[in-house]
Please model this.
Amino acid sequence: MSDDTDKLNQLRDEIDSIDRQLHELIMRRTEVVEGVRAAKESSQVMIRPSREAEILYRLTATHRGGFPKRELARIWRELIVATLSFEGPFSVAVFDPEDEPGYQDLARDQYGTFTQLIRHGSARAVVEAVREQTATLGILPFPHRDRDEPWWRFLVSEAPETPKVIARLPFIPDSNIRNRDLNALVICPIGQEETGRDRSLLAVEAEEDIGYPAIENALTQAEFSAAFHQLWHDPSRPPGWTYLVEVFGFIGPDSRQMRRLRDGLGTRVTRILHLGGYATPLGKQDLQPAGETNEDPAP
Model:
């Protein structure tokens, strides 16, 4: 047997040994997750989207070597979702219109190859499935100003079972979906937790059109700025004017910044509701090989 063949066999044996160690660690990790599940028995929904994001932030920031970061992130997404599935029933309601394919692809990329996906032809049906917990999560289109149905209006409620936004998709960029320009939000009846790389969503209700500049000015006073806004007007429903505002950063529902925002708008608004938020998805800079730089910041 040649020296080259001996060397090749040694390397293959080493790969087999590493595979066994990886498998042992996966089984050990699963045992630890089972302990976490036992500690959270009182929780109806086990998912922690902020922690999931922080895991991927940390992995991509510390990764070294030639293995691609995108594939590394994909492996960990499957690990996370696999353990979610045995913490309790886990399924995803997906908005699936005939004229806009791709939301199912986004759902599968984020929530695993084998997770049950339940298709719905209307956004309201997705919201109701999550509200009633016949599905754990819901996948809905990212709001656009020209969209006929502002589905987020179904989240404008103080009822405890009302879903909130918990994530934005795709979390890992450049996935192999049918519509590369597609973006979505994930909803679930849990609160937002801070990661340091966040955006928050607020609903501002008023009896009359107060104008977005008034909201923008109040946000500035509260030391925040808006990334996006959309208006829903329904003259048959008091209060008839509701603004959706996406804010850079984390602004908790009971935070000092939220109180300052309410004070800044005063009696011009009926109420301000926190609709959730999300940890910003990985950017191309996050996924660059170690040692490479890119001036483009992560989203």
Summary: Strands lie at 91-95, 116-120, 137-141, 164-169, 184-188, 198-206, 226-233, 241-248, 271-279. The first helix runs from residue 3 to 39. The helical segments are 3-39, 49-62, 69-87, 103-111, 123-131, 212-221, 256-265. The mean pLDDT is 90.
